[in-house]
TrEMBL record:
The lineage of its organism: Bacteria, Bacillati, Actinomycetota, Actinomycetes, Pseudonocardiales. GO terms for cellular component: membrane; outer membrane-bounded periplasmic space. Its cofactor is pyrroloquinoline quinone. Keywords: Metal-binding, Oxidoreductase, PQQ. InterPro entries: PQQ_b-propeller_rpt, PQQ_MeOH/EtOH_DH, PQQ_rpt_dom, Quinoprotein_ADH-like_sf, Quinoprotein_DH_CS. GO terms for molecular function: calcium ion binding; oxidoreductase activity, acting on CH-OH group of donors. Belongs to the bacterial PQQ dehydrogenase family. The keyword ATP-binding does not apply. Residues 49-358, 475-531 form the Pyrrolo-quinoline quinone repeat domain. Pfam families: PQQ. This is Alcohol dehydrogenase (Cytochrome c).
Length: 566
């Protein structure tokens, strides 16, 4: 039978459906003068949130103190932006609102699932423009239809899409400037990371480790989109670290180690600090004997060349799905340049960021049964799925004692604030033959639906816990700390909380109507401080809180401020 295909024409530009009157869809050129120097000194303009973590150091700290411990009880909603979309890629149940809102001189830039990007008036919430990328509905995604945000520089907004593109949009109009593909969706690669701008480069990482792909970090020219370098995070035969993989076969070629969380950067060392993901298959170590570098590692990458300068592996030969993708927070203590990292395996690592030397390692969650790490960094595995068809229970579960969601650090208190998930899981090894684009887990996994807890816990650089705010449910969202000595943290059940950064006392709470799994940020417009939090439960919730898999998703950005004074 002959089938005649009809030309469907051009897809409708989503921006034309926004109801904007002529002229109302153009943002002021606030991003035109944003470049490397401004981002380097981002905390000198605290009214803005110029980059994913607020600054290159990853601290998620803002000096703003208009909202503080004395007046936070008066905090209330200033405006709400309803994204109004339902999550189409890979099924409606998988989407989540995870982004960190970026703010430049009164204009907010925000990314969502399904390829959405918006520009909003940061004072009123009025939409200026929107962009919708055409992403195929059948893209392979392991852990949710999500996007963690945008980067801005040189008059452009940069973001990645679920089908592994990195794009530059005109920051005034939302029109596409350039578009590059950096992953193979046919193999199971995707992208969820918020880009990082360093010098003239856009730095992005890949997703897809659960499909047996080889992870990589990439740099593109921010003006032209030209590819600058690629850093593979699993060495091929003959490269340093290749002896940690089987000498025969192609285990290395499908080894995982994806970089799906934004790096931090130190201009003095010229190094990016990158957390890498799990090896593949996740739970079946028998097909990939060895330590499996550079999976589950912190790697330091030269930003100019893309070369790995040093590494520290947090979980050698991981068979629990303990990605080390968590943020690398840069700080100084006793004259040393250090890096703090809360790993999914339940341990808090402090490294010398000049050479990767281990300074200290301590547990930050109560229940750890998978193994143990001594003070000098020796790792001993104790419980793992090593027999076919035999269930094995361990703590923490595969979502970790802290998932990707970020800790924060206050230079005022010199404390780290970490969202903790104390949840176990059972894994039953099931060996599977590798097939491209098919999930390559190597086990059936059931996360505990009972006997779980969570907290926001405060630690000093020595790993000593200073206080703990306890919650009945795991804490599954990033925290924000401010110069007003406040720690903002959202709960899975919808509450958005402000805690005293010095004591952990709950000072304020607001029910947002949906669970939190995002990155709150803070900024100031016309002398008024705002706190913005995307609200939309979902993503891989069966991995960290399966009892709330059916909870309402939500798709709103809620922005809070103190009452205006007359």
């Amino acid at each position: 039978m002959t089938v005649e295909y009809v030309d469907a024409g051009e897809a409708i530009d989503q921006g034309r459906l926004s109801g904007k009157v002529a002229g109302g869809e153009v943002a002021p050129p606030v991003v035109r003068d944003v470049g490397y120097e401004r981002i380097l000194n981002a905390r000198s303009e605290p009214q803005n949130w110029l980059t994913y973590y607020g600054a290159y150091n990853g601290q998620r700290y803002s000096p703003l103190d208009q909202i503080n411990t004395e007046n936070v009880k008066r905090l209330g909603p200033a405006w709400v932006f309803q994204a109004g979309t339902t999550g189409l890629i890979a099924g409606a149940s998988t989407y989540s609102f995870e982004a960190a809102p970026i703010v430049v001189d009164g204009v907010m830039f925000l990314a969502g699932w399904d390829g959405w990007v918006w520009a909003l008036d940061a004072k009123t919430g009025v939409e200026i423009w929107r962009y919708k990328h055409a992403v195929p509905f059948d893209v392979s995604l392991c852990c949710g239809n999500v996007n963690r945000g945008v980067a801005v520089a040189a008059g452009k907004v940069f973001f990645v899409t679920a089908n592994a593109h990195v794009l530059a949009l005109d920051a005034t109009t939302g029109k596409r400037v350039w578009d590059q593909t950096y992953g193979d969706v046919r193999a199971g690669e995707s992208a969820t990371v918020a880009p990082l701008i360093v010098k003239n480069k856009v730095i992005v990482g890949s997703s897809g480790g659960e499909f047996g792909v080889r992870g990589h970090l990439d740099a593109f020219d921010l003006e032209t989109g030209e590819h600058q370098w690629r850093c593979y995070t699993v060495p091929k035969p003959g490269e340093p670290g290749s002896d940690t993989w089987p000498a025969d076969g192609e285990a290395w070629a499908r080894g995982g180690a994806n970089c799906w969380i934004t790096s931090t950067f130190d201009p003095e060392t010229n190094l990016l600090y990158v957390g890498t993901g799990n090896p593949a298959p996740d739970f079946d170590g028998g097909v990939r004997e060895g330590d499996n570098l550079y999976t589950d590692s912190i790697i330091a990458v030269d930003v100019d060349s893309g070369q790995i300068r040093w590494h520290h592996q947090c979980t050698p030969h991981d068979v629990w799905d303990y990605d080390s993708i968590g943020e690398c927070i840069l700080f100084e203590s006793e004259g040393r340049k250090l890096l703090g990292h809360f790993d999914k395996n339940g341990y808090f690592f402090v490294l010398d960021r000049t050479d990767g030397a281990l300074v200290q390692v301590t547990p930050f969650v109560d229940r750890i049964t998978w193994g143990a790490i001594t003070r000098d960094g020796k790792v001993t595995a104790k419980v793992y799925p090593d027999e076919e068809g035999v269930p094995v229970h361990f703590y923490p579960g595969p979502a970790g004692a802290k998932e990707w969601t970020h800790a924060a650090y206050s230079p005022r208190t010199e404390l780290f604030y970490v969202p903790v998930q104390d949840v176990g899981a059972t894994a039953t090894r099931r060996r599977r033959e590798f097939k491209e684009s098919i999930p390559y887990w190597g086990a059936g996994v059931q996360v505990d639906i009972e006997d779980m807890t969570g907290s926001i816990s405060a630690f000093d650089a020595n790993g000593e816990e200073k206080w703990r705010w306890r919650n009945e449910l795991p804490m599954c969202a990033s925290v924000l700390v401010t110069g007003g000595d406040l720690v903002f943290a959202g709960e899975p059940s919808g509450e958005f909380n402000a805690l005293d950064a010095r004591t952990g006392e709950l000072l304020w709470q607001f029910q947002c109507g949906s669970g939190h799994h995002s990155n709150p940020t803070t900024y100031m417009v016309d002398g008024r401080q705002y706190v913005a939090v995307p609200v939309g439960w979902g993503a891989w919730s069966e991995g960290f809180l399966p009892g709330m898999l059916g909870a309402g998703h939500g798709s709103a950005l809620i922005v809070f401020a103190l009452p205006e004074t007359s």
